[in-house]
Design a protein that fits this description.
- The complex is a heterodimer.
- By secondary structure, chain A is of the alpha/beta class.
- Chain A is about 20% helix and about 20% strand.
- In chain A, α1 runs parallel beside α7, α1 packs parallel to α11 and α5 crosses α11.
- Chain A is globular and about 75 Å long.
- Chain B is mostly helical.
- Chain B has one domain.
- Helix content of chain B is about 55%, strand content about 5%.
- Chain B is built from 9 helices and 3 strands; from the N terminus they run ααααααββααβα.
- In chain B, strands 1-2 form a two-stranded antiparallel ribbon.
- In chain B, β1 and β2 form a beta hairpin.
- Classes of the chains: A alpha/beta, B mainly alpha.
- At the A-B interface, α6, β12, α9 and β15 of A face α4, α6, β1, α7 and α8 of B.
- β12 of chain A pairs antiparallel with β3 of chain B, so a sheet runs across the interface.
- Chain A: This is GMC family oxidoreductase.
- Chain A: Belongs to the GMC oxidoreductase family.
- Chain A: Its cofactor is FAD.
- Chain A: InterPro entries: FAD/NAD-bd_sf (IPR036188), GMC_OxRdtase_N (IPR000172), GMC_OxRtase_C (IPR007867), P2Ox-like (IPR051473).
- Chain A: Keywords: FAD, Flavoprotein, Oxidoreductase.
Chain lengths: ~575, ~200
Amino acid sequence: MANFIIDAKKEMTYDAIVIGSGISGGWAAKELCENGLKTLVLERGRIVEHVTDYPTMTLDPWDTELRGSLTPEQKARHPKGIRSGFIGANNEHFHANDVENPYTEVKPFLWVRAHQMGGRSLLWGKQCYRWSDLDFEANLKDGHGVDWPIRYKDIAPWYTHVEKFAGISGEALGLPQLPDSHFLPPMELNCVEKHVKERIEKEYNGRNMIIGRVAHLTEPLNGRGKCQFRNRCDRGCPYGAYFSSNAVTLPAANATGNLTIRPFSIVQSIIYDETTGKASGVRIIDSETSEMLEYQAKIIFCNASTLSTTQILMNSTSDRFPNGLGNDSGELGHNLMDHTYRVGAMGKVEGFDDQYYKGRRPNGIYIPRYYNLDEQTKTDRFVRGFGFQGSGGRAGWGAGSNQENFGGEFKDSLMKPGPWEFFITGFAECLPNHENKVYLNKEVLDKWGQPTLSIDAEWGENELAMNKVIREDAKEMLERAGLQDIMDFDNEHEMGYGIHEMGTARMGRDPKTSVLNGNNQVHGAKNVFVTDGACMTSSSCVNPSLTYMALTARAANFAVSELKKNNL
Amino acid sequence: MNRRNALRRTALLAGSAVATPTLLSLLQSCKEQKRVDWVPQFLNQDQAVFLASFVDTILPRTETPGALDVKVDIFMDLMYAKAYDQSAQEYVKAEIDKFNAACKDEYGSVFADLSEEDKTAVLKKAEAETAKFNPGVWGTAVGEQKPVAFYRQLKSMALWAYFSSEEVGKNILSYDPIPGEYLGCIPLSDVGNTWSL
């Protein structure tokens, strides 16, 4: 594919500017370009062409000198990100350099970043779940945060719109708390997962265990191939089988002839025009030359990722907005959310020793939320709820490390698969809390001399109460499902480990308490749209990316119609 | 267990027994010194000899190749040289030396020179007393991980080096780089050995 137009210098004025090319930026680019707008996508990192720039996509362990291990030099680039456990030699080139891009942890916070075309859409977990009105009404009902300015009916058609193009596999169940998507065929559960599902659903009225709903093609779609079950997604997929900006939205935007993508472009600020009351463009720093440039456009989409978008807005000061663009409310930078992570249980399953599976499925199981759905499921231990992800599989040779054994028979025994194991780990909704915040730090500057972010956030009582119940419930479910050697755990991870940062420029009904309106427009600068995770008013307990896609497509199409009406 | 044994046991695991270099070299000079037939990038000859003997005891040749057949020791030396930072490198060298010193203290010679019976005794003791690795989920361990002594780290790395070698990964384990489909329930007999990837 491709041949992206990357020479943006000749043309300084566009119809639209999109800041960032990750999951939401890719969607903004596609929708705006397909509606005929000349669109400039500003990407702070390098170009990553689909397939061509996936150097590790087919490597087996023995194909590289250190078999996928990081060198000390590689580790030194990721002193923070390495905590995630996700960085290896085969994807290190897709993780941002923590040294060049420092941030300050006022309280411990893991901020995983990806600075290249496609951003974290190359690395994401791909779990896709629609939100329901249980989520959109939650703030209004229990009084935490402010009311969402939209409801499920406002976003439902946009979920369908993005799902049809992205390709989401899963099983329709008709659960009110987890609305069905437009689905491609579901992936299969393995023997043990089917067994555990049966037991849990029999033991507990109203609990379901389903195959994960994921942005992987189980049938070819629009020239993209179906998943080959290699599970090497985070190196880039040669088949384009999982959704990424690189494989899906940016090529579509490019096909219109309306896209220019400028790499190495760090957006320093958005330029606010006091006379028109709108933004007139953006100021960027070329990361290679350190040159400062300005680009103009009629509309600006902020899709730099939750915290980076907020950082740009905070850095965009003017007489009208001395505390950051759109920050009349004082809420910019506040109400940072994530999902709790790594609390659950695992155990062994007996009776399936003659069974195995084929393929490395990039997906697991999902147990949808089952608390506080209605009067019957209400608990007084916490508000909102949580869901579980997990999977079953047979232990491999790695189990030998712990076996009190060695020698020839030991070695040969490890050639055969070990016991079946099964685990679940919870993801709890995080309440919006004004005290969980980020702010500009002018003492710590990045490689380009720009202020950085200080992050000051921690779990509240409600999240910790949920983690306790997650652990208890996980253990109990596995016990009642008949598992052996059950181990329950809570790693007590700080915020950020969920890699679901949300909030800090929330949508709302009232400009006095929110940064964005119901169409993702910045209050007081209506031609600036924020449609990445920064816009989120609450966090639900399900993975957020699908909702970013839908909100972005909705806002982009709204922006186009407003432009046509000369309202922007 | 008497106190003397308890001390020895602790010494072996924590590697706190120290034989002075002078004493070691004196003893070594009394008989022919073993050498490896490859040039270590990181370990010294004594340490390389230890490693070769260690991985050969953990994963000896049977009907399938042994650790030395697939160059587990050479690969581990390379890993120490290129994937370890300085403090981790120093730790490895110190721990190997301590392990050998403890063997010498308790059994009279370094690990590689012990009889098969004594090697087995040393490793059995280490197995019984070394903390286990916690299981992991998605790249990180779960629960509170107790410090894992050098013995199990070394064994774990030897297993990885063995099973991730091309010979074992491609020709002995079930190798399927592009499965093309996911089948959740099939007879194990259709696959045979565990999947390599």
